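Annex B. Sample input.
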Amino acid sequence: MANSMELKYGCNPNQKPSKIYMADGRELPITVLNGKPGYINLLDAFNGWQLVKELKKATGLPAATSFKHVSPAGAAVGKPLSETEAKIYFVDDLGELSPIANAYARARGADRMSSYGDFVALSDTCDAITAKMLQREVSDGIIAPDYTDEALEILKTKRKGTYNVIKIDADYVPAPIETKQVYGVTFEQGRNELDINKEMLDNIVTDNKDIPEDKKIDLLISLITLKYTQSNSVCYVKDGQAIGIGAGQQSRIHCTRLAGNKADNWWLRQHPKVMGLQFVDDIRRPDRDNTIDVYISDEYEDVLAEGRWQELFKVKPEVLTREEKKEWLTKNFDVALGSDAFFPFGDNIERAKKSGVKYIAEPGGSIRDDHVIMTCNKYGMAMAFTGIRLFHH
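Annex B, continued. Sample output.
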């Protein structure tokens, strides 16, 4: 380890010189085992590591996240995959997965379009099966507390030997005060050391007071994910994984819609018509992901047009109609939803209901809290006011 690391450039190629360093003189908490990570890679790596470390602490389960442009595209804990999940995440050919591999399959699989070219963070040692999963995906790098010898050898073969592999000191504790500069002016604040735990969910303000233990875990996943997502942000979670993350929207309803649309796409990918798509044998993984995304959208004609479908499918698929999609979406339920700041209006709850939300955690404190609570009560939802805002910029 060293005190500083020179980088090729900053956020953009014209931003030189660039480096990371420890202002307090300590050694950097990371060792680069392979590759040469860049400025944005390291922003993703450090934010992603914090997220998975806190998920592991809060849930007791191995955790993984898939980061893109300083926000998570997906985050999950290592619950076993169902047969359907293994198929829609395209890992059903890998045999039995380890807990940490399950976590990354879920994190990557939540929004495969957004995870293209991701930076991965794992809470636990990267093993060979997780490395094999990563080997065939388009990804920029990984940060983890350790790697097995076999996993490291596999990862070193990615991107013609240039894949970024970072080992982080799991015992590293950052300084309690953090700073950054904007326009030559230094900003200083106390680090957000907020411990997100189940006690935050005790203040249930709706008529329905029942939040089962597994749903509390889902709400914790949503809140911890939001802690490291560019604000405004909203996160939908189901069965231990984020299924829709809306980041960086100026309006909360736009954020709720964006994340809800991603959650809907995750569910639509499990529709029998999508599961039954017969792709040509040599289709690339990213092309297949993009094709599925278009097929389940209103732009489906782009992949079903004569001359085009033959390039993608062995057999021309039937259209997944709007009626079929609407009916299928009604089968998704018991979804958890977290928000990094209060919902100002009940329209957010109305939109969340369309994506199967039953459990909500948000700070509370809006002058329209009564309307938000009333809307939750209309649908029998259980909502906890955490009293804690989770802005991240």
